[in-house]
Amino acid sequence: MTTLDRDYQPPWAVTCWVDAYAIYIKINTKAEPYITSFQLSEGGLSKALHFLKEIHKERAGGKQKVNGVSKTHSLIKRKPVPTEAVSDEQREKVRELLRKRGLI
Predict the structure, then answer these.
(1) By the 8 A CB rule, do 45 and 2 touch?
(2) pTM for the whole thing?
(3) Whole-number Å distance between alpha carbons of 46 and 88
(4) What does the H/E/C string look like for 62-97?
(5) Does the pLDDT value for residue 36 go beyond 80?
(6) What is d(CA 51, CA 42) in angstroms, rounded to the nearest whole number?
(7) Closest CA to 95 of 87, 3, 14
(8) Cα gap 51→9, rounded to integer Å
(9) Domain boundaries, the chain
(10) CA distance 40 to 42
(11) DSSP code of residue 12
(12) Residue 37 above 70 pLDDT?
């Protein structure tokens, strides 16, 4: 039987918060949690997002699963549409039809 996880947090999750002066990010480690701060500005937000992206790559390996389903998938390739050559007879029939309709 499986156990229900009451506090869903993947292993790569971090905690973020903001106050009037800075953006804070807390990373749980085996020893003590690591807390870093970034300036509360557009540049600070950009650096914080870059930091979060790097942490995700390092901890989650770029792939993540939600409820046992991987969110990444292999590239879906389309089969090429077969192109058949048009015969001269078919081409003449189309031209005749277009002349009847007054399009050419």
Answers:
(1) no
(2) 0.51
(3) 62
(4) CCCEECCEECCCCCCCCCCCCCCCCCHHHHHHHHHH
(5) yes
(6) 14
(7) 87
(8) 19
(9) 10-64
(10) 7
(11) T
(12) yes
Question: Which of 20, 56, 54, 15 is closest to 36 using CA atoms?
Answer: 15
| Residue 16, beta-bridge partner list | 25
Measured between alpha carbons, how far is residue 55 from residues 21, 34, 39 in Å?
A: 23, 12, 19
Q: pLDDT tens digits, residue range 52-89? A: 988 888 877 655 555 555 655 566 677 776 677 778 88
Tokens at 88, concatenated: 């001269």
Torsions phi, psi of 55, nearest 5?
A: -60, -40
- Residue 85 is predicted with a pLDDT of 78
Q: Which structure tokens are listed for 40?
A: 């509360």
Residue owning tokens 């918060």: 17
Quote the CA–CA distance of 34 and 55 in Å, as a whole number: 12
Question: 38-50, pLDDT tens digit by residue?
Answer: 999 999 999 999 9
